[in-house]
Amino acid sequence: EYLDIHAGGEDLRFPHHDNEIAQSEAFCGCKQWVNYFLHAGHLHIKGLKMSKSLKNFVTIRQALDEHSASQIRLLFLMQNWDRPMLYSDQMVDDAKAKESMLKNFFGTVKALLREIP
């Protein structure tokens, strides 16, 4: 039938998604195959778009060897989805600080809730 939301990288905006719409609408026989497109920013490492050809990429496994899954999630949640996302030591440190702040906050909340009769 149709999709409500379809996403991809900003580099797929044109012509890839335009072609995908034309092909899908022709195949499905519908007037509007997708309601909304979300085009996410690319991941940048040390100021450059992550790319195998530049050999400046980090695999998920490598990232998880150095950081917790929560820290990586926070790293990306702290950035705008539609702009280039930065992966750097500074951004990871910011995510670790945010994780520590959240753990302290929720630890305090739990302790206060235990005191309520």
Provide the descriptors you would attach to this structure in a database record.
117 residues; alpha/beta; two-stranded parallel ribbon; 48% helix; flat
What's the short story on this structure?
With 117 residues, the chain is of the alpha/beta class. 48% of the residues lie in helices and 19% in strands.
Description:
The chain is of the alpha/beta class. Helices cover about 50% and strands about 20% of the residues. It is built from four helices and five strands; from the N terminus they run E-H-E-E-E-H-H-E-H. It has helices at about 15-30, 60-65, 70-75, 90-115, and strands at about 5-10, 35-40, 45, 50, 85. It has a three-stranded mixed sheet.
Q: How would the blueprint of this fold be written?
A:
Elements: E1 3-9, H1 16-28, E2 34-40, E3 43-45, E4 48-49, H2 60-66, H3 69-77, E5 85-87, H4 89-115
Parallel strand pairs: 1-2, 3-5
Antiparallel strand pairs: 3-4
